[in-house]
Amino acid sequence: MMLEAACLDGPVCGVDEAGRGPWAGPVSAGAVILHPDRVPEGLNDSKKLTAKARAALEIEIKASAVAWGVGFASIEEIARINILHAAGLAMCRAIEALDVKPAFALVDGNYAFKLPCPIKTVVKGDSLSCSIAAASILAKVARDRLMVEMDALHPGYGFAGHKGYHAQIHVEALRRLGPSPIHRLGWAPVKLAILGQLDAEAFAVEID
Known about the structure:
Elements: H1 2-5, E1 12-18, E2 27-33, H2 51-64, E3 67-73, H3 75-81, H4 83-96, E4 104-108, E5 119-122, H5 125-128, H6 130-153, H7 159-162, H8 168-177, H9 188-194
Parallel strand pairs: 1-4, 4-5
Antiparallel strand pairs: 1-2, 2-3
């Protein structure tokens, strides 16, 4: 919590996104203001936690935080303003969803998004800041939950399993079924898969 403690002007929120890499679905973001005396144990970069651990921590974070918010940017917004700015839009919505207005935000990464409050970027912040780690967990769990719902609406693609990321079953489904309404049509892997030209090993991305 040292990064959070360095700001003395008011509440500090951690902010992180999930879903910049997938070929389908929205991008999400979380914003969390942790109570310094009620920080859940086990907070870490959401990618380093199991789904079970993330689900348990989501409950703890929401119960103990001073405030929390989650925001999304749609595939239409991703197509219109690009994935980087869509991630920033989701972050804005997450901060705006907070019940307590933050004085300052710690944002994972090195890109200085224009957000509703002053920010400090923190490279690998989800491993260095408890509030960023908490935000990353909320963003990841919220997006994963939505992709499970999308699997029911658009069966056959395996969204409940791979959540829209690179997977052989995803490539095969795209070739067989074509894109679903939630695929990011402008993305090269989707275009190549539709043409049957996507190498199964190409375009693998880190799950965020």
